[in-house]
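Re: the 179-residue chain
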Amino acid sequence: MKRCVAIILAVALIASSGTGLAGELQPYEERAEPPALDLPDLGGRQYNLDSYRGQVVLVNFWASWCTPCLMEMPSMQRLATALKDRPFRLLAVNVKESRSKAWKFMKLLKVTFTTLLDSEGETAEAWDVQIYPTSYLIDADGRMRYVAYGPVEWDSDAVIQRIEALMPAGKAVRQVGLD
């Protein structure tokens, strides 16, 4: 537990230092369909990427030992909250760790987005994940459009604009102030 607290404090210190996050969304030139993704969440419910056609999906591969992964999670939570009523889903895939370890870190970081378990690392291998975190933005047609190697400030205006541009026509306009 002391190690977890130390990691969280390190993340908070780095995040508050004003240095920002280094990763950047890069166009995924092939615009290919992604490999299969069919994994359980922390509660055992099965998720399949194909069921999200018509929505933009952020697929993020992470591990608890990866400090940059933990650094970007608060911005991912803010993004998920900002786009909660939009055709957007965030799937954070924990790689090669136990359900209890992944759950503990999600709870410590106070994030509520969907966390999937790739216990054996087979999905990460199929997606050719070699750097943590690695994230992919999948468009509404199910094509890989952007990739990011390293942490990203997911709730920045530039990133949100790219995500909105991938949304189905007529659903990309941000609805501000509507209750």
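The beta strands are 26-27, 38-40, 46-48, 56-62, 88-95, 114-118, 134-138, 144-149.
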